[in-house]
Amino acid sequence: MFETWEELEESIKDCNKCKLCKTRQNIVFGVGNKNANIMFIGEGPGADEDKQGEPFVGKAGKLMNMAFQAVGLRREDVYIANIVKCRPPANRNPEEDEAQSCLNYLRNQVMLLKPKIIVLLGSVALKNILGKEYGITASRGKWVEKKDIKYMPTWHPAALLRDETKKIDFINDLKLVLKENN
Ligand code: URA
């Protein structure tokens, strides 16, 4: 575990722990406020994120920004990262070995950030962080507390693009997060 953000980021720079390194353009380390109470964890970079090196800058990210705005949350107030830091080809789900090789980086980010609240965006984040026994449909909108961190599972923003009715759930889950943080 690295004690500083700089050391951690440096250690990731040339990562070749899994096969995703072969097809990536950029490593998407994470972005946001390193003093944030709230951390968001997604699945993995898509095409736009791979190009720009920043999480949630594509369609799903824009929708997430709009939801943030709707509840009075600013992107610069939170920290955003993903389960895997390199884009899975054709946006497939990260495979078990890829997620496992990358999770130590995320654990190190959590250790440095010390968030009060972690929002788990979708099933891949939920299962990798809280365990395979969790399902997103049953878990979303309900707090899970573990080792002094409160986890709020919710829909992945890309799911809102496919099913508009999920938007209201997402907004409501963000409101719960804001309320808990106040
Ligand atoms: N989807 C994710 O899970 N993460 C991103 O950074 C972008 C899209």
Explain how this protein is built.
The protein has about 180 residues and is an alpha/beta fold. It has one domain (about 5-180): 3-Layer(aba) Sandwich (Uracil-DNA Glycosylase, subunit E), CATH 3.40.470.10. About 45% of the residues lie in helices and about 15% in strands. The protein contains eight helices and six strands, in the order H-E-E-H-H-E-H-E-H-H-E-E-H-H. It has helices at about 5-10, 45-50, 60-70, 95-115, 125-130, 135-140, 155-160, 165-180; strands spanning about 30, 40, 80, 115-120, 145, 150-155. It has a six-stranded mixed beta sheet with strand order 1-3-2-4-6-5, with helices on both faces. The longest helix has 18 residues, at about 95-115. The termini are far apart. About 40% of the residues are buried. The model has no long low-confidence stretch (mean pLDDT about 100). The structure holds uracil. Uracil binds near residues 49 and 60.
How far apart lie the N and C ends? 31 Å
Helix content: 40-55%
The CATH homologous superfamily:
Uracil-DNA glycosylase-like domain
What is the number of strand segments? 6
* CATH hierarchy, class: Alpha Beta
Lay out the secondary structure:
Blueprint: H1 5-12, E1 31-32, E2 38-42, H2 47-52, H3 59-71, E3 79-82, H4 96-113, E4 117-121, H5 123-130, H6 136-139, E5 144-146, E6 149-154, H7 157-162, H8 166-181
Parallel strand pairs: 2-3, 2-4, 4-6
Antiparallel strand pairs: 1-3, 5-6
Bound molecules: uracil (URA).
